[in-house]
Amino acid sequence: MSLIYEKQGHIARLGLNRPKQLNALDPEILLELHKAWKDVNEDSSVRVAVLYSALPGIFCSGMDLKTAIPRLSREMRMMQMKDAFTREVEIGMPVFGSEDAREGVKAQKEKRKPDFPCKY
């Protein structure tokens, strides 16, 4: 499963889980993310969403060009990828992105900004 999607109470968690590809985004996971973001946005019980990595120490290595380019024509790729990114889906709640989702959830409960370390 490339995307782990679960809801617990008022929290939606979306986990990237492509270990061999270091969580590189391919067309399938982008479409899974798009469907999940739409579901999150339509569920009035969800108050916060957490985007996280299921891989320790790695968030996302970018687009998986090995699968994205050969499988989609330019026009189709542009249309599907455009819709799959969250900026094309209005999400009416806070969204946290982290390799450690627990901090985002804890910060939301404590009504403070999350303390995420930036690793480059």
Would you write up a description of this structure?
With 120 residues, this protein is an alpha/beta fold. It has a single domain (3-109), classed as 2-enoyl-CoA Hydratase, Chain A, domain 1 (Alpha-Beta Complex), CATH 3.90.226. The protein contains 4 helices and 4 strands; from the N terminus they run ββαβααβα. Strands 1-2-3-4 form a 4-stranded mixed β-sheet, with helices on both faces. It is globular and about 45 Å long.
Briefly characterize the structure.
By secondary structure, the chain is an alpha/beta fold. Helix content is 36%, strand content 18%. It has one domain: Alpha-Beta Complex (2-enoyl-CoA Hydratase, Chain A, domain 1), CATH 3.90.226.
**CATH top-level class:** Alpha Beta
What structural category characterises the helix and strand content?
A: alpha/beta
Query: What strand order characterises the main sheet?
Result: 1-2-3-4
> How far do the termini sit from each other?
27 Å
Helix/strand layout:
Layout: E1 3-8, E2 11-16, H1 27-42, E3 48-53, H2 65-71, H3 74-84, E4 95-98, H4 101-109
Name its key features.
120 residues, alpha/beta, 2-enoyl-CoA Hydratase, Chain A, domain 1, 4 helices, globular
